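Quick review question:
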């Protein structure tokens, strides 16, 4: 059975409370490499905007897109409260090619692993479109090493290697941990947090 991507309504329901992925800060797996993320940044599926705000606070040109209007409103309010210059747009990540510009970096922290089978290839195509040649995608997703249970689909290393075989150079593919929100029971995932992959891929011409 093939899996399909969640709808905006699914995410609205999740954001009616505090989603397990909304930790109020940059995911540690990205924070570890944040100093390597230089230049302009686009967060695909930015949610409440933690990653965008992190890079905007460092003075970088930072954009975020999400297809849930309510979370974009939250992100904009957070940027205004902190006096940060960051752009947030209501947009489906499958439509990134409609943006009128390109970026040095695209961040995907928890989006790829919720995409349905039919959406993965179109998604990576629009990510390539919005990245400058030589630009990098920084992707964090659940790993197949994480036992079955709550959360998104688990992604196998081979799936990532296959998805990025054409038009990309995989610079790094490492096992990392994701952090869940504080309210998530400690036994919901592996000790130390959900097992994940961090992939760094460079767009090649």
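Suggested answer, residue by residue:
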């Amino acid at each position: 059975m093939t899996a399909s991507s969640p709808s905006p309504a699914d995410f609205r329901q999740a954001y009616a409370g505090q989603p397990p992925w909304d930790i109020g800060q940059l995911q540690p797996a990205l924070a570890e490499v944040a100093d390597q993320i230089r230049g302009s940044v686009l967060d695909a599926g930015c949610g409440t905007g933690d990653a965008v705000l992190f890079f905007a606070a460092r003075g970088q040109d930072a954009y975020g897109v999400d297809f849930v209007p309510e979370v974009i409103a939250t992100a904009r309010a957070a940027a205004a409260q902190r006096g940060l210059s960051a752009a947030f747009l209501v947009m489906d990540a499958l439509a990134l090619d409609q943006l009128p510009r390109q970026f040095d970096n695209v961040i995907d922290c928890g989006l790829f692993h919720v995409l349905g089978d039919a959406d993965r290839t179109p998604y990576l195509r629009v990510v390539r479109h919005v990245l400058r040649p030589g630009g990098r995608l920084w992707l964090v997703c659940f790993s197949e090493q994480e036992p079955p249970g709550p959360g998104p689909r688990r992604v196998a290393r081979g799936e990532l290697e296959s998805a990025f075989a054409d038009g990309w150079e995989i610079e790094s593919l490492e096992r990392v941990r994701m952090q869940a929100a504080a309210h998530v029971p400690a036994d919901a995932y592996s000790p130390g947090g959900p097992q994940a992959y961090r992939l760094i891929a460079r767009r090649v011409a």
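Why it works: DSSP finds six helices and seven strands in the chain. Helices lie at 8-15, 28-31, 50-57, 69-82, 117-130, 157-163.
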